[in-house]
Amino acid sequence: MIGLISATAAGAAARDRLAAAWPGRTRVYAGPAGEAVRAAFAECEQLVCFLATGAVVRLVAPLLGDKASDPGVVCVDEGGRFAVSLVGGHAGGANALAREVGELLGAAPVVTTATDSVGLAGLDTLGLPAEGDVAAVSRALLDGEPVALDAEAAWPLPPLPLVPRDSGAAYTVRLTDRLVESADGEVVLRPPTLVAGVGASRGAPAEEVLGLVEDTLREAGLSARSLAALATVEAKAGEPGLVEAAARLGVPLVTHPAEELAGVAVPNPSDAPLAAVGTPSVAEAAALAGGGELLVPKRKSRRADGQPAMATCAVVRRPGRGRLAVVGLGPGARDLLTPRARAELERASVLVGLDQYVDQIRDLLRPGTRILESGLGAEEERARTAVAEARRGHAVALIGSGDAGVYAMASPALAEAAGDIDVVGVPGVTAALAAGALLGAPLGHDHVSISLSDLHTPWEVIERRVRAAAEADLVVTFYNPRSRGRDWQLPKALAVLSGHRAPTTPVGVVRNASRPDGTTRLTTLAALDPATVDMMTVVTVGNTATREIAGRMVTPRGYRWQDGRQEEAR
Ligand code: SAH
């Protein structure tokens, strides 16, 4: 919940805009500002104060505890010009909130956290528990001093300007699930690589399960902060001791059907669980079900009262999973790049793409991002490279213009990818949509895109699809319409459409949509000169109901335009 506090009429007006824009996310604290701030500080995850920073500093100072748990506080000035991230920039989310508030109110976000202002990911914002000297290592990164990466686990870290381990750097970022003390000048990051398989008799106390898991990890020299999950058999999904132990460890309880566990090869099967739940192994099999290496074979809890053990535990280390984001950059204009695409570009430590698309977003990349760019025609190789890098455990962004799934990199990449990496798709504004918005509303009824490139598709297939679209009276957007070496395809396709549509059918020709030198023309099937079309262009041909209205191309949502009264009404 975001607490909103204001003292003046202007502040209250801005406050109400936030409250209206974010229904259910905010709570207004009325009354004297001091009491309101204190109440909101105690009850909310975040505060937006429409008050001077000085006033807020005085009010929150006695309330501040620790940056890991304090709420994030944003101040907005009386004129609504600035949204200042005051405290809790990272963990409290104030930096992100300042940006959001700024966007909504038209205020400039003011973010002073050093790592954010130079575009570095903060070591405490990586989504991994961090131990050790975070402040000193962050400072070294900011000062451009060499910081080494010592990674025992492959993990898709965001970009950080780190040097190899043996380069004698005074500072280190260490990525390990082993129980090591951080040295001076060292930050230890805990990747969630460990899975503890657990078995429990009915009524096993949570204390016993928890104690067993914690002892097992510690005795094996492993950090509980790297624990990703407890795993068990489906029949034990509701076993209170397991549920509570998982909750107290802060990890999910993952369950597997007994048949699945029975099929997992384990070193220590036994008859007891076979009789009880239908698999010869619960702890070892559940730990191993997601793959990985068995670090600690099954062991039982030790009970002080000498009674039989009620819990078993085994520990597996999973291989790190890389992350492949397939990111659409939109048609060209920076403000048509989605915030989500931008976040993924900042999140990736490896960027793979066509050189001209990399140029489009190079300034957004964080220091330390490895850029693998290649020229036109190397699609398959780019796809393979992106997948191979993700498989090595990296966070990879594979970029494409428009939407990366439309005549672009998503399909060759996913054809290469197996289940061993995570894939995230970020949609983009396609050329057809960008062109449609410039032309008017040409896509108001059923429509298709057809690429006229016969590089990967035989012309007969393309022509058959154009014919089908013509017969079905679909609005058609032609991609890759014409290049120097491919000049007869567009006239041919237009001829097919002309067989079913009037010569006066509106045709939109949009070149470089949303780019600085963009042009938009509205013509007709009969008047279009194919020579004015090139590879930077999309051509949208209307259906039999599409009309030019006030210089705009409009395809009605129904076919009522053909109705006489509607014709007259126009
Ligand atoms: N993935 C892209 C399409 C790539 S195919 C998308 O979703 O839009 C390349 C073709 O897209 C070009 O030949 C051209 O026909 C079209 N195109 C891409 N960007 C364009 C733009 N800004 N303006 C007009 N056409 C564009």
Describe the structure.
With 570 residues, the protein is an alpha/beta fold. The protein has five domains: 2-112, Rossmann fold, CATH 3.40.50; 130-189, no CATH class; 196-317, CobE/GbiG C-terminal domain (Nucleotidyltransferase, domain 5); 323-429, Cobalt-precorrin-4 Transmethylase, domain 1, CATH 3.40.1010; 432-560, Methyltransferase, Cobalt-precorrin-4 Transmethylase, Domain 2. 30% of the residues lie in helices and 25% in strands. A hairpin with a 2-residue loop joins β27 (547-549) and β28 (552-554). S-adenosyl-L-homocysteine (SAH) binds at residues 331-332, 400-403, 406-408, 430-431, 434-435, 479-481, 510-515, 535-538.
CATH architecture of the largest domain: 2-Layer Sandwich
Report the radius of gyration as a whole number of Å.
Answer: 30 Å
Number of domains: 5
Percent in strands: 15-25%
Shape, please?
A: globular
Q: Which parts are unreliable, with pLDDT below 50 for 5 consecutive residues or more? A: 564-570
Name the average pLDDT.
93
Number of helices: 19
Q: What small ligands are held by the chains?
A: S-adenosyl-L-homocysteine
Tell me about the largest β-sheet. Answer: 6 strands, mixed
Which structural class is indicated by helix and strand composition? alpha/beta
* Order of the strands making up the biggest sheet: 2-1-3-4-5-6
The percent of residues in helical segments reads: 25-40%
